[in-house]
Amino acid sequence: MMPMASSSLARLLVAVVLLFTSSALLCADASVHDCSGERFAADGNAFVLHGGSEGVYASAKAAAFIRFEKVAFRRTPESAAAAEEDGNRTATVTAVIFEAGDRDAVGGADVSVSGGRALCCTPDMARLGACTEGTATYRALNGTGWPRVFAASFLPGSLEAAFPDETVAMARTGMYTLLFVHCDASLAGGQVAARGKTIWKNSRGYLPGRMAPLLPFYGAMSLAFAALAAYWFAQCARFWREVVPLQSCATLVIALGMLEAATWYFDLAEFNESGVRPRGATFWAATSGALRGAAARVLVLAVAMGHMVVRPTLAGLKSARVAGLGAAFFAAAEALEVSENVGTVSDHSPSPTRRLFLLLPVAALNAVFVYWIFSSLSKTLNKLKAKRMTAKLEMYRRLNNALIIAVAVSLGWITFEIHFKSTDEYNERWRAAWVIPAVWQLISFSLLCAVCLMWAPSQSSTRYAYLEDEEEEGEDEDRDVEDTRPLIRPGPLSYVDNWAISVSKDATTIILRTDSGVYAKAAGDGGKRAFLPRRIREVRRLIQSIVDYCGNAGSELFELAHMLVSNLGQSMTLLQVYAAVIRIFVESSMFEDALLTYVEAKNVGVDRRLCNFLLKCLVEGNQIMYARSLFDDMKSCGPSPNVCSYSILMSMYTHGERLCLNEAFDLLCEMESNGVRPNTTTYGTYLYGLCRSRQVTSAWDFLQTLAQSGGPCSNYCFNAVIHGFCSKGQVDKAIEVFHGMKKCGFVPDVHSYSILVDGFCKHGDLLKGYDMLDEMARNGICPNQVSYSSLLHGLCKTGQVALALKIFKNLQDHGFEHDQINYSIILHGCCQHLDLKAISDLWFDMIHHDITPDVYNYTSLIYALCRHRNLQDALGVFELMLENGLSPNIVTCTILVDSFSKEGLVGEAFLFLDRIHRSLGIVPNLCMYRVIINGLCKTNKYSDVWKFLADMIKRGYVPDVVLCSIIIDGFVKALKLQEALRLYRKMLDEGVKPNTFTYSSLINGLCNDDRLPEAMGLIRDMIGEDLLLDNVLYTSIIACYCRRLNMKAANEWLRQMERSGVFPDAFVYTCMIDGYSKVLAMDGARLMMEEMGKRKLKPTVVTYTALIIGYLKTGDEKEACMMYESMRHAGISPDVKLRCILGIGNDRGDCDDSQKANGVT
């Protein structure tokens, strides 16, 4: 049956697609009201052609109008000949545009006309002087120019009368109607045909006013369906093994609803944008809506009939009655939807008779569906009651309530719709008309959500499958005892079936039987003395198995509890069974069920120990609201909370993600007022919370007051405060607390010392950390793994890896067994600083001591190999890591990709990225791309930079300022300044704000290229962004001015640099000295040299060379010689350039050239 259904569905889909495609090729209507041969119809004493009726939104920002395009009327030759015989009488067609509120201005009252209102001027009206007989009559409203009237006349002998192309602007929002009227009785009988079109446009687009609000509504509905689909598909993907056919039908309904909403949205959006309404899209939207409506009703009917709950399969849905009803509804709804929507481009209401003719079948079929659904639901409810399937009964009651609400709301809305349409004959409430179809959509969507939430796939969906009774109730007990099936038979266990409990004759076996024939048994050991604890364990196993297979067991487990107690001969109390159930629920994180069991257990009386156990589990499970409710129940109904209860709640306030210190303090006050004395655990927990919130000083003051008043405190309290001060970096204060602890008579334990050792080492004071370890040994306290790991980590962090390794081995030689953490710390430090041999020895030592390397260790080793440019071995370690079942993380892959890029193996890097993405699911992040591109820039692989950048954008990452700055800096260093500036402008266009590093790179490049005006422009931009100039920027600007020999500007920038707190280095002074020397301002050069001495900056050979050349140019050979001697006295040897200038070079010719180049003789 199922393959045939699938085939039929496939053929139906193909037919719909073909129909949609062919429909899309047909001509489409628009907000253009097209006339193609329409003829006038008699209306009272006039002949009228309706030209359109639309709600128009007027706005000062955008034009709203009606435009006439090639509107003309053609009469028959016979009527033209008759007019000539009648003396060439002129016939006129009048176009009248009016707003619904001004409809009384069109026509006039005349009792002689049917309906009492005449559109054409009657003889009586003409005698009163109100109009000219035989013409359309209207009354101009004062000062408004409305209604707007246009006329076109048939000239003698002419067959056609045409309106000029004209645009009528709408200045007021309203429902506007266009009528074409003629009053010539000789043209009756359809002798005048219209052609041309009128284009109606709102200020918001081409959508008619009543349709316009539906555009955002269907957009919102599309998102709502998408959210529902995402939830539903996530549940289906999560529990795909448990998905049943009923849930597949729900998937189809959701997909159709999403398709319908999206198609309506795109149909209306295209209509609004272009003015053309595609018939194909409208047809498909209407079709998908009708199909979704039929499928949804069949789905609800299936649920109501109990399929997959009290019936085995969906086979019943293939009956002729259900299939015929669904097909009939689809056909009727399709006819109604297509009639109302396809080709509709106006707000003019369709013919009421035609609409009623199409609406009645849909209403009748809906009534049949409602009757069938509720009658089936009633039978299903009765069956569930008879079987005592309380959980399923509750679920179906919720469905029944949802359906009753939906039907009630639907009936109310039908009443409102009838009232709305019957009292709005002229569509004056057109702006609210969109709400009517919108509410029908919301009712349908809400009911679908309710069904989906109640029947969503879960880890035990298949437990709803019905199984016929396999065995009779009256089987003898011996057969049950001989059953050798396991504790719970593999397969679904329906927790809503009837339970049957029995015990074997020797009281060693508990047997559970359900209506579906599923057995469970738990064997005792047969010993009278040992039977009770064994029995409790087996009962727990029994309940655990039920919960594991059923997902939960609700109130049915309460019935099972009573059965167990009565059938086990009172060897277990009812409270013990409830305690076992609560324990199982909290271990399975089923906290709500645990609370329900607690409420049930209160009927037999619960003890404080069980309450505290449940409260502790709720706190550990972060169930804040449940924990508070339980605590309040204990206070109001008992048993009253004791100090343990309060301590558990204190832990919740101080250990959670959100600290609640005010509530914690109030809890302490409440304990005192209730006569419950806090203990050391309570105070220690409160102090821990204060320290977590960085209120360590307050915690220390509180602890001192507590100790001085003789209150309960312990090492735990002092350790919390010591840890708080160490976390804030106030190790001196931690030592003060440590000494205060001793004064109060408390002996510091290993935790106290370990906290201090960690605090000293983290803040670089390794000597004091070592002293604390020494003090521990003197006091007979053996340091633990944490104590040593803190010292080892501190040494490695400060680069003293060799010393850390030595201490590590000494401890090992003295019998200390290092754990995974210590090995990881030392291995990481060695990989950062030592050679490969030391790393290899440590790695094998780690394996020798049965410490299995983890991902962190493998990553450290790969980093070390890549740091030593040994990429092949690093890849070998990577493969070994995979073989050992470890999944690398993003850091591991980033290190390898960085090594690929630094080696210039760009292709291999791309292949590696694809591999880890495909096989390991690791997606490159922004940090990885930064590393790759930085490596490429350093190796001048700029063409590959763009490849990686494109791949990064393709994967959805947006380059940030750090990445862009790296690329810009690389371009500048490679002398690709134009590329750098292009990327800078692209950053600005994309809204990425440059940082100081970005500006420094660009300005440095521009200054080196002697493009100072552009550099100054960037500096102004930088100052406008409130960014501070750094040493690199000042140096670049000063060096550029010095190269330009503009020493005044260079000196000003130097002084500004000093005022801003950035101190110049030797390079800046060298640039200044070189510039002064080139302009022969040797006093300035000498002053710069003196400032260098004051700042204790050492001149270089370049500095001395610039000074010596300057003095030689000015002819002051004495000063030049003095400078040369100062240079030699400072231990600086002249370079080749200076030796040539001074004539002490080996190559005379080269020296002469150098002297000429520098202007020295």
Q: Please, what is the average pLDDT?
A: 77
Number of E strands: 17
According to CATH, the fold-level topology of the largest domain is Rhopdopsin 7-helix transmembrane proteins
Rg of Cα set: 45 Å
Number of H- or I-type helical stretches:
47
Number of domains: 8
> Mind describing the biggest β-sheet?
5 strands, antiparallel
Top CATH class of the largest domain: Mainly Alpha
Per DSSP, what share of the residues sits in E-state strands of 2 or more residues? 5-15%
Key structural traits:
Jelly Rolls, 5-stranded antiparallel beta sheet, alpha+beta, 17 strands, 8 domains, 1161 residues, Rhopdopsin 7-helix transmembrane proteins, disordered N terminus
Descriptive report:
- The protein is an alpha+beta fold and 1161 residues long.
- It has 8 domains: 32-201, Jelly Rolls; 214-464, Up-down Bundle (Rhopdopsin 7-helix transmembrane proteins), CATH 1.20.1070; 467-572, no CATH class; 642-778, Serine Threonine Protein Phosphatase 5, Tetratricopeptide repeat; 787-852, no CATH class; 855-957, Serine Threonine Protein Phosphatase 5, Tetratricopeptide repeat (Alpha Horseshoe); 983-1063, Tetratricopeptide repeat domain (Serine Threonine Protein Phosphatase 5, Tetratricopeptide repeat, Alpha Horseshoe); 1065-1161, no CATH class.
- The strands form 5 sheets. Strands 2, 5, 10, 11 and 13 form a 5-stranded antiparallel sheet that branches.
- Strand 3 (41-43) and strand 4 form a beta hairpin.
- Helix 4 (214-238) runs parallel beside helix 10, helix 5 (245-274) packs antiparallel against helix 6 and helix 40 runs antiparallel to helix 41 (1047-1059).
- The longest helix is centred in the N-terminal third of the chain and has 36 residues, at 352-387.
- It is flat, with a radius of gyration of 45 Å.
- The termini are far apart.
- Mean pLDDT is 77; it is low at 1-30, 312-318, 462-511 and 513-533.
- Residues 466-486 are annotated as: Disordered.
- Residues 213-461 form the GOST seven transmembrane domain.
- Residues 467-481 have a biased composition (Acidic residues).
- Belongs to the PPR family. P subfamily.
- PPR repeats lie at residues 607-641, 642-678, 714-748, 749-783, 784-818, 819-853, 854-888, 925-959, 960-994, 995-1029, 1030-1064, 1065-1099, 1100-1134.
